[in-house]
Amino acid sequence: MKITAYGGAREVGRSAFLVEEGKKQILLDCGVMLGETVKTPQFPKGMEKGIRDIAISHAHLDHSGYLGSIIAHGAKPAIHGIKATRDLVGVLLADYMRIGKDVDFGERHVSEVARRFCTYEFREPFRAGGFEGRLHNAGHILGSAMIWLGGERKLLYSGDISARATRLLDGCEKNLRADALVLEGTYGNEELPGTKETVTGLIREINETIKEGGHVIIPSFAVGRGQEILMILESHMKSGVIPHVKIYMDGMIRKAMKIYRQNVIYAKGEVQKRILMSADDPFSSKHFFVPRRRDRSDVFKEPCIIVSTSGMVTGGPILTYLKELGGNPKNKIIFVGYQAEGTRGRKILDGAKEIEIDDEMVKLRLKVAEFRLSGHAGKSELLQFAYGIKGLRKVVLVHGEEKSLMELGESLEKKYEVVIPKIGDEVRI
Question: Angle CA(8)–CA(9)–CA(14) in degrees, nearest 5?
Fold first, then answer.
């Protein structure tokens, strides 16, 4: 068995890992990297058409965003994943097609992606690319899965994992069995603060801005962080901890909320009970609003909270809000997720006083705050997850900046053989 890294190696984005064993072959994830320049997996020329099976861990574009392209280039794969992943991939690909740079696929290719999806429940056995397969709950977003493959060796691919339960999801499944683990290391060199501490700080910053008569802008991924943030805001507003102002949902977050509601079976039990046993539907609240005007002028009239895509400020409605509100020091932008190198979000966090939007330099005077309300595991959680894998001998570290992976690897190599591949490297299991 061998794994070849065509993306997601010593970087966060464009995850794509080919697993082979004799004539067996399957691609794990098929993503793009979004930033100033969109980067795609570095497949050898002509290889794409030959890919027959792809397993998708979850819907985020850095794991699924190349699916439309690979079909446009002539591939005819079977795509394997959880039903909620299929539904969310369709929404995110359609949005990426509309607002993304250098997009080389169209609506018919997005429809073909959905048609080619083979869906499974968590832990349901299936066969793909000649391998036995199972999908295990990863706790990252709705429908996110770790991919287990059985051949001569047993391999577990973590995708993105979160060990902590959230308002919507249980944490990832643990204590599985595998000879080798392909493990994400997004936060492999740092500990993430506790959720209670993070939420307390977030609410404090929001209240401070609302009291000063400002607008709060929260860039968020349409899927995952968007829903968690909205649930937190709705809960604290209902209890009176946050003043009663409008919470605007903008971008694909609104459509993603509908898909979350339709696939609530993949959410934690108490969320299902709220919907089934009461009129208290967490996905529909009197506090949630949608901009009525195309130019968003109705949103700018009074203090409010805006939760909008994109999470790394690479495109979407968030750019309109920054152009209009970025010059006012009463306003505040609050980052709640990972900001990759080269994105506007990272530049703002690093202290940029102006950014380019639509070929125009926009001066920034608004306040900046950051709270890691992450859907990923921190360093100690990643270590504990690996230590819990029965029979584990080898760990392949991916999906992290080099410094993060190196530090995580130093801790793991006391117990396991550790490999940190570069793009194009083959790793034998």
Answer: 15
User: Using CA atoms, how far apart are residues 269 and 146, in angstroms rounded to an integer?
Assistant: 20
Query: What structural domains and CATH numbers belong to the chain?
Result: 2-190+387-428 (3.60.15.10), 195-370 (3.40.50.10890)
The DSSP-derived string for 27-94 is EE----B-SSS-B---PPTT-GGG--EEE-S-SSHHHHTTHHHHHHTT---EEEEEHHHHHHHHHHHH
pLDDT, tens only, 241-258: 999 999 999 988 988 999
Separation CA 163–CA 139 (nearest Å): 7
Q: How far is CA 288 from the centre of its chain?
A: 23
Residue 123 near residue 147, CB atoms below 8 Å: no
Q: What is the pLDDT of residue 7?
A: 98
Q: pLDDT value at position 4?
A: 98
Pairing of strands 247-250, 288-289: parallel
Residue 417 near residue 394, CB atoms below 8 Å: yes
pLDDT at 74 over 90: yes
331-388: pLDDT as tens digits: 999 999 888 888 899 999 999 999 999 889 999 999 999 998 889 999 999 999 999 9
To the nearest 5 percent, what fractions of the chain are helix, strand and coil?
A: 30, 25, 45
d(CA 306, CA 15): 30
Query: For residues 234 and 246, what is the distance between their CA atoms, to the nearest angstrom?
Result: 10
User: Which positions ≥6 away from 380 have C-beta within 8 Å?
Assistant: 191
Omega of the bond prior to 310 within 30 degrees of 0, cis?
Answer: yes
Name the token pair of 295.
Answer: 């130019």
